[in-house]
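Help!! Second protein's tokens look totally different from the first
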Amino acid sequence: DRDTDKKRIEELLEENMVLEIAQKQSMNESAHLGWELEQLSKSTDLADTRKSFVFELNECASSRILKLEKDNQSLQNTIQELRDASLTSRESSLKFVELEKENQQLSKKIEKLQNQIEKEKQSNQDLETLSEELIKDKEQLQVVMETQKADTDRQVQ
């Protein structure tokens, strides 16, 4: 039973490491999205709106990641406590079941966060496309205005 428990602890540690890597990747992706939005906002009149959107996006992602990191740290502390304490086989089995459930919940949260990041990426691409279209429309309107002004000036003369 103890060998089985030790193997299970090792498996849970590996899962936690995978979750930590996924969290770091999510943080990196979120930071990159924020950077992309900042770069995009510099080139348009919608800079203030986008900056607040970037800030909210980064804050939301950061808070979720921090929560997941806290949960992960809690799981690691529990695993360490299980190692240090000599629990009976029954008690440790119950703890492992509980840890498995928490790990599954963390995995689901990370998956949801990754899905949300994908949705936000798509939203950012949509915003970029819209921004480009608005810039083109603005340029076309300026050309039309200049043409009309020239026509008006000729008519006045």
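Here's the second one for comparison:
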Amino acid sequence: GWAGEGLGSGGKSRHVCHAAARLEMGSLWEEFNRLGTEMIVTKAGRRMFPTFQVKLSGLDPLADYVLLMDFIPLDDKRYRYAFHSSSWLAAGRADPAAPGRVHFHPDSPAKGAQWMRQIVSFDKLKLTNNLLDDNGHV
């Protein structure tokens, strides 16, 4: 087809131009953020807590969608945890960003109707601090 075929508002595909995601358990995420809670990843294959869950809406019920999760750095600093003050401290510049790794939701691809029918949970997502991990961990 043509390069612009199927484009809706703002140049986005008509299949995603009305898509929206609402974070589930938002109050728990907000409380963790307020307390400054951070997850320390010290071993390969640690599951994220709280689990990332969203309720999707505005998808084309008959279109196929692939959902994936990606992580990007918030800033260019390296942090260390200071146990004596129970806080995170900036400890210099971060390493150069590693090539991105994404986690594909195991139900992908699926129709929009399936994604919107229930809460989408990334509970199988596992994190690692090993840049050379080849087990599919992010």
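Reply: Different proteins will give different token patterns, so don't panic. The chain is about 10% helix and 30% strand.
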